[in-house]
Structure formats: structure tokens, C-alpha cells
């Protein structure tokens, strides 16, 4: 029976398949050719035996991934420090045909580092007998070590056609059919898989402090930082140098995908320059044990170490995010828009991903399998995949909750690959404040660095509805940190770019000093005379309120220059050229990364250079943001600055300065007494963090689309 099945399907048995426990009928192969319809695969991941050790202590922290057709469909929980883990986890997978094997991959979880590969196997679905529970033992293999024993994985599987499901499964099939009416070619991405990306709640975590941490350095202190992980979501805190009682006071959010909760893994590390960071301790937060809509203060003792962490954890209902078909449009009625707006923090964003044209061919067949990733800060949603198409139509509507009106919407197009990570096809970044509501636009796709065009355009229709008062108040609060950003790496071009930007900011101050000095030297008598008269007038009549009044005058002067058509703002081609050079260097780095492995030996020097590179970027960005505030690069922020300066001018005019300083000092001294766990922030720096730097201005710049390059035009011009 087993051999006849292999002959009919042309397949092979999976690695380490246990023939004694798996008698497979030949009718399955006949069913494959006769009925390539839907199947339900019920899997129980039982346990692992004698898994390979990947940690220094001779153990591993194993977890398992299931993949079908290159898509991850299941990930187990992590069992810490165990080579014989017992999972007993169940999952249900919808399969559109049995020709795709189920890949099982086992990894060793390393927090903060790349997880170590333990081994893999595959299960030939065509070799399973339908409607019969089957116990499967799979031997894990690693192609790099083909002779080594990596252990075994024990599963229990049940394959059944969709027509023979139980009542619960009937409901799932109805949901599948509803989602498949619009795009029949997207059956390989099931409704269940799409639902898995919609979160059911928000976990808000405030990292307050650490107490009595273990000393890891020779001076009897540590440089501690914290890493938190919930599923695939990660967050890394700032480093607090030379202390055993660090104060972080950082706030971040995780998405909660499981109704029963989840576990936040927390590890504490000591930062060491030039070598691997030292492990201080770990702890966990079981979210299923916490009540919702309530803030919990937790003091967690560190395992495998000393001391404790103090956290505030709040579980709230899901932020309003959704995916629907294009026919669903809830923004037509004004009253309905106002009612919807009440349910959101600052506002809401609706993105209609319609179609793309003339995409890059990423496959050897001259086609691509494109899908879209739509991101707003830490909210990330995906479309379905349109297979073998360079002009895909998605026609999907995404709705996001806006927490900060100065956020940037990122839409990235990828090519789905079966056995490796998706290929990048193009990307656009659109600041929310630059969006024109209800207008369908063709956006030219850009490269990874957003510095220049790549092949293809994407058609989007975007609506942004927000409360201006709430948005203004949120501007003066700390900016949400994006916890999926890539780590900064050393780049010669990036270091040079930041140095040139820094130099340009410094040269502005130097030129201003030269200008003032020329007035003192009477290089130009009329100019020096005018400056002398202005100096006497300002000093004689100076009051403290003149400072915000002068800044207000500068903003007003630039505004009138812009509206009168005398805009003196220049297109920054220098930054564009530097960004293009950096993109070329990134491409070379990707190709030559294996040849440059020796740089790991210079880790300490590299880390110092990265720090210098980042400091130059921060200082240059600060100067550019101040300039762009007065240049009206973002009108909303410039108007907000005008309102704030008007208020400051009036306050300073009517209220003596000593009273203002007195109120400010009392507030600062009593802030910790009134709100012990308040997060420190500087309103001015928070405001400036929303103003784009010159690099961001170039990245967010919209490229012009030439309609003559669309496929429909080419077909008309070239009928043959």
C-alpha cells in the first residue's frame, strides 16, 4: 500500500517517518487527482525527544514552526531549558491541496539574538490516509550536519476533506467562502490566516525601574537594559549606565492576538562594549492572570539572577483595526464619520489598497506573487497574495486607529517565496498630514531606503479623519517608539552623510557669527549703521516677552514669503545624492557580507563608530528640524508653534517672570510626589521629534507618476 502510494503521487516519505504507526491507503492518491479541493488538517504537537543542545549550558529552549507553501501557519510556545519538551498543543490548518508538504522546523529561542536552528523534517500530506488519526514520529535533520542526530518530534494528525467536517468546522467553512467570493485566486491565504493578524487587545507596559540588580562589571555596578518579547513582538529599553537600581520609565504597547492571553518574556542584560552582553536575569508576565481594563503594578523577582523589576501593565480592548473588501465604505455619511471618530484616540485612517501595475518580476518565470504590507507605527496588516501576476488587484480596505497624527503610513509590496523570505518589490512612505482625503492616487514605488524609484506603481485611496485639538495635545507627548526597527549598523556612507549634515548645521552658526562680526568691523557702513540702531532700540526696550515675539515674527515672515510666491526654500539635492550613494553601498554590503566577516573582530571599534554616527545624526536632525519648523515644511506644526508662541508672549507680557519660574519649579519638584510612575518628557523635544529632518523630507517626497508607462497604455500603443 505504502509503495503504491509513493508511485502514484510521485512523492517521498518524510524524514524519519515511522512506518509501523502509519499505514497509508492508496485511495488518497486517487482523491488527489480527482478532487483537489479543501482539506482540514488537525495536528497535535505532542513532544520532542533528545533534541540537540544549542545553549552553553548543554540545553535548549525549543519551539516549533509549521509551514505550508512557504507560509508559517503555526508556532508553538517555547519550552525553556529542556531537550525533551512536552507541548501538547493543537492546531487546525486548512489545506487547498495535498501536493504541498508540511514543513516542521525546530528552533532554539535566544532572546535578543538570532534563534538557533535545531533541525527540520517534512510530512508528506499525500501519504496520509483520510479520516484516520495517525501518530507520526519525525526525525529532525540539519543539512549542515547530515550525520548528526538532532532528535525527534512526535505528532498526531488527522486529515479530512472539507465536506466531512463537524458543526464547528461548518461555521469555519462559511467564513472561508464569504472571504473567497471576491478573490477566488487567493484561496491559499485562508480567512483564518488573515484573522490571525488582527489583534484582540492592547497590552500597555510601563517599565518603571529595577531594584538590587546583580553587579556584572568589575566596578561592582552594571549597565542594565531590558528586552521584552510577546510572540514575534520585541521591545528594547534604553541603557542606564553604572547602576544597580536603574530608572527607565518607558512606555510601550504590544498587540494581544490570543483571547486567552499570552506570556511576556522579560530578560535583563548588562551592556558590555567589545564583547557579548552579560545576562542578569529573566522573568515572565502571564497575561491570562491579569484582569482587563485595569492597571496592575507588578514587582517581578528575577530568575537566575538577583533583584526585581517594577512594571505597570494594562490590558485594554482592541484598537479599532479591520480588513474588509472594497465594497465596504463607512465614510460616506458625515454623521457616521463623526460617530466613528468618537471611538478613536486622535482619529482614524482608512486605506484602500486597490491595485498595482508594472511590478518587478521576481521569479524565474518572469512573474511575481505580490502581496502588500500596510504599516502605521506598530500596527501591521497584510493583503492576500495574488499569484503569478505583475498587475495585481487586491481591492482591500484597512482601517487603523491614529494615536499620533504625525505618523507615517508605509505600504510595502513583497513577492511571496515558498522556501525563503519574501522578496522586496517596492515601498512608499506617506505622512498622514500630506494625505488628500478621498483621492485615488498612483504612488511610484521606491527602493528600500526611499531614495529613488523602483519598478511599478501602486494605487491607493486614503482618508484621514482626526481631531485637531487632540492631535495638538498629543504632539507635546513622547513619540511612540517603533519596536520592529532594524538595529543601526556601521556604514561609511551613512557616517559621511551625518558628518556633512552636522557640518552644514555648524556652518550656519559660523556664518551667522561672521555676519555679526562684520557688522562690528564696519565692512559695510550702511549695514553696520542699521545694525547699531537696531541694537540700541532692542536693548533699550527689551522685555522677556520679546524673545517669543521675535520667533513669532520669523515664522510670520517666512509664511508671507511662501504665500506671495517668493519661497526661498531650496530642493535639497545634496541629501538626495548622499542617500543614493548610501543605497548603492547597502546593495554592495548585502552582496559582499560574507566576504566582510572580519569586521566582527573589530566589534568594539565598530560600536564606537556606530555611536558617533548616531550622535551626528541626532544633532544634525535637531538643527534641521528647527529649520524646517520655521520653513513651514509641515504647516500643521508651524501653526501649532505660532499658537504656542502667541500664548507665551501674552503670558510673559502680563505675568512677572519670577512667578512663572516659581510655578515651573514647584511643578518639577512635586511631579514625582504627585505621580510616582509618570514618564519624564520634554515638551519642546517631543514637538521637534514630529518635525521631519532633511533626510525624512527626501524619503517622504512623492515621485511623479508618468501615466504613459501604465500597462493599459502600452497595450493600446502596442497592439501586437
TrEMBL record:
It is a multi-pass membrane protein. Keywords: Calcium, Cytoplasmic vesicle, Endoplasmic reticulum, Endosome, Membrane, Metal-binding, Repeat, Synapse, Transmembrane, Transmembrane helix. The keyword Transmembrane helix applies. It is found in: Cytoplasmic vesicle, Secretory vesicle, Synaptic vesicle membrane; Endoplasmic reticulum membrane; Recycling endosome. GO terms for molecular function: calcium ion binding. One of its GO terms (biological process) is regulation of neurotransmitter secretion. Pfam families: C2, PRT_C. Its main location: membrane. The chain crosses the membrane at residues 529-560, 636-664. Residues 20-138, 183-300, 322-445 form the C2 domain. GO terms for cellular component: endoplasmic reticulum membrane; recycling endosome; synaptic vesicle membrane. CDD domains: C2A_MCTP_PRT (cd04042), C2B_MCTP_PRT (cd08376), C2C_MCTP_PRT (cd08377). PROSITE patterns: C2. PANTHER family: C2 DOMAIN-CONTAINING PROTEIN, DYSFERLIN-RELATED. Belongs to the MCTP family. This is Multiple C2 and transmembrane domain-containing protein 1. It comes from Alligator mississippiensis (American alligator).
